[in-house]
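Bug #77: duplicate submission created two jobs. Keeping one. Sequence:
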Amino acid sequence: MALESLGYHIQSVTGDGFGGIRTAFAGIPFQMCLVHMERIVIRGTTRHPKTEAGVALLALVRTLFDTHANKHVFYRRLQAYWHHYQLFLNERTIAPISGESFWTHEELRKAVMSLQRLSPYLFTYQRDARISKTTNALEGQFSHLKEVLAIHRGVSRGHKEKMIHTILLESTIAPKEESH
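Kept job's structure:
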């Protein structure tokens, strides 16, 4: 791996749930970003769910942010959620003209399936205090980078890439002090 060849030792990865990250860093502890997990659920429920199943799912995912979140309790609650709402989530609707069948509560169902699929990676941070449970710090760095690039409107893509590489390699945008 390129980072390791530069002398980096990757102890863990916190990511947004896309499979490519987990595949690229196979064998390294992976933590699903809890903020991204909540966003995935909100995409399926909205911030103000109208159904009982949506309200319950949003409340469940928000328990991940409790200071004493417990993996085993969460898994039991997720399993109980599935058993309670399984018939609702498996409802199908048939389009009257085409006769095509589709999930009635498709977005909510996708959110539940994502939560189930990613649940093994929600509590990795509890094994090691150095593992971050969100990508907030990293995303803060990228927003700072975007601000710096925005100052240079009209710069070609190639020059922007050189700027990004320089900033990331130097780990700062502050000018180096000259030694006298």
